[in-house]
Amino acid sequence: STGTAVEPKTRATFPTALDGGRRLLGIGLRKNCVLGMKDINVYAFGVYADDSDVKKLSEKYGMLSVSELKENKELIADVLDQDLCMTVRLQIVYGRLNIRSVRSAFEKSVGSRIKKFSGADNKELLQSFTSLFKDEYKLPRGSVIDLSRERGYVLRTRIDGKEVGRIQSSLLCRSILDLYFGEDPFDRRAKEDIQLGLASILQK
Ligand code: DAO
Ligand code: DAO
After folding, report:
1. Of 68, 85, 145, 154, which residue has the fewest beta carbons closer than 10 angstroms?
2. What is the value of pTM for the model shown?
């Protein structure tokens, strides 16, 4: 059955299951440091993975214990890389977000990952995504953005449940997921929970 998890600092709530069989692995906070100001909480996020897709990895990892899996870097690399359905749900908590700052934050965060994984800027790929961010969109506090990796490495974007675009790119999917559970994640504690969640699916 579906319950709810609460991000304690922002009180944002996340259903424990989403999009069919996708199960909540961990929740966290994306902050932003504005020069000369305190960190602001921009959004809370929840990371979900399709149960049966994750179990496809059990041939490789099923013999390891939860505590071994919790530390296993290769597991994270496989989950970033492979064709597993996942969703990252963002809930906006900062009340004065404008599309221009979303675009420039995105170019920095996702752009740096695209460069790290491909060794090139891939400006067209970044622009294919940022061109979805129409100036007329509003993201008031409470807005929900779902970024999901669908079968075949399709990145699907929804705002408050309404689909705004689909882009097929394994590099873009991986670069976005890397923000949440890659090497240098937005929230380290969330990454630990996500990895523990993956481990416990593999141990079932
Ligand atoms: O200058 O008012 C400000 C702070 C803006 C912070 C913007 C951070 C944007 C983070 C990306 C949000 C994606 C939905
Ligand atoms: O937090 O730096 C970050 C990147 C978050 C990904 C932002 C995706 C925003 C998509 C929103 C489109 C709305 C116009």
Report:
1. 68
2. 0.95
